[in-house]
Design a protein that fits this description.
Layout: H1 7-22, E1 25-26, H2 27-34, H3 38-50, E2 54-56, E3 63-66, H4 71-74, H5 83-98, E4 101-108, E5 111-118, E6 133-134, H6 140-145, H7 151-158, H8 164-176, E7 179-182, E8 189-197, E9 203-212, H9 218-239
Amino acid sequence: MAVKRSSSATRMLAVFEAIARAQPLGVSALARLLDADKSAMQRDLMTLADAGWIRPAPGTGGQWELTPHILTLARPPHSNDSLRLRAAPILERLRTATGETAYLAVPDDDHFVVLGAAESHHLLRMVPAIGIVIPMHGSATARAVLPFLPESEQERLLGTPLSAATRREFARTRARGFAVNDEEIQPGAVAMASAILGGDGLPAGSLVLTGPAERLAPGRRDAIGEMLRDGARQLAQEIG
């Protein structure tokens, strides 16, 4: 027998996620954003506030923001088997060797989330915040991960059947072990990524290096890609 879902719980989660993405937000903006009744939004806001997840944003007159309570969920349990903890020394090594920001991204449904980072010491640098969402389309992370997924999942995530050109691109990525986004999402920014494959051969995440295009010039990319690939393979071995 199918289990009935709770529509009110689903709506409240949508409210929480909307505030997380665009805080501070007021009840009217939330109602427009979620196409919902204002009174229902108000009930959800008060429930979340009473539970300690949100609070009135100072000086905004009726808008809401997340409380630090969210950080209790953002820190995974301390364990030697934690992907984040095992990735930390590899990220540091990549940062030291290249001078650029290195980070770990993990899949989360139809996008990716940054789980850990070693930030470049350059004054001009790319800094992905922990928890930031990485899109499926066009990112170096997606280009590194998608080639190792089953074809049905590739097509679902891309929203289209695979073209011959896409198949060739996926084959090249699998062969060399890394992918590149060359200023295609943010002008002036280059990102390179290598998939971390689990014991089942499916991606558990990716190691990513990002920096200004002038420092991540084409002549450096093969060497950096090899470092990313080797780091991803090491991490894959450590997590089994």
